[in-house]
Amino acid sequence: MGAQGRNISVSRRETVFDNHGNSYNIDIFYEFDVAGLHHRVAIECKDTRRPVERDDAIAFAGKIRDLPSTIGIFISKSGFQPAARKYLQDHGIAHYAGGDLPYLGNVITAMISPIVCPSESAVRQPFWTLMRQENGETTGEWCLIPDPTDSRNASGTETHNAPSALPLFYSRPHAERFRTLRYQDSADVCVRGVEQSMLRFLTLMAHDERRTFAFVDESGAPKVIYHGWTARDLAHEYWANEVAASFDNPPRG
Q1: DSSP structural state of residue 170
Q2: Which terminal CB of the chain, N or C, has fewer other CB atoms within 10 Å?
Q3: Where are the domains of the chain?
Q4: 6-116 belongs to which CATH class?
C-alpha cells in the first residue's frame, strides 16, 4: 500500500465538531486518506496588521487539542508575537508568517510524511515499531499483530475476524529479533523509530478507531509475551495531560 493521498477534500470556513460536541469554524480544512488512515488538517489564517498574540495561539491550540485526529497549522500574514510563537512551538503546532510561508501543499506533505513514512534515521521516542516497505522505501503501512487483550487471540496467533494491534518495542534489537521470528527477515518488513509526532498521531488514531497497542515483552523470548495497552493508557503514561484529558471526556450527545 502506498502513501499517496486518496479521498481528498478541501473546504473553507468549515464547521467541525470537537470531542465534546462543540462546533468550531475552521478557515481551511483538509481531509484525506493516506496508507489506510484518515487525516485531518485544520488551518487558521490571520490577515491582520498586528502580529498574532498569545491569546489567539491559545484559542487555536484549544481547538486542535479537542478535535479528533487533527493536525493544526497557523498562518499569519503579519507574523507572531514572541509569546504566541513560543506557545505554538510548545504545543507542536506548525506556524508560518507571510514572508516565510512555503507552498501549502509542501507544508502538509512535510508534516504528514514523517508520520506515515518515517525514514531509517528516525529515532525512537521512546519506541520502535514494524512497517511495510517496498524496494527499500517505507510504504506508510504499519504491521499489525493479534490484539493481546482479545480472548480470541489468547494463543498469540491470528484468528479470523479477531481484532489486531499495533506492536511497540523498547529497543531496536528487540524489534529486529521479533521481525526475524515473526516475518522470517522478510525484505517487505522494516524496523522504524516512533518519533514524538508519529507517536502522538498513532495514539489519536488508535483512540478514534478503538485499536490497542501491543507491547512485546523481550523477556518472553523465545516465547513471545504481549501486553495490551489502550490509547488512553498510552496517553496517560507518555503524553501531556491535555492529550490524556481529551480521552477522558467523551463527546456529548
Answers
A1: S
A2: C
A3: 6-116, 127-248
A4: alpha beta
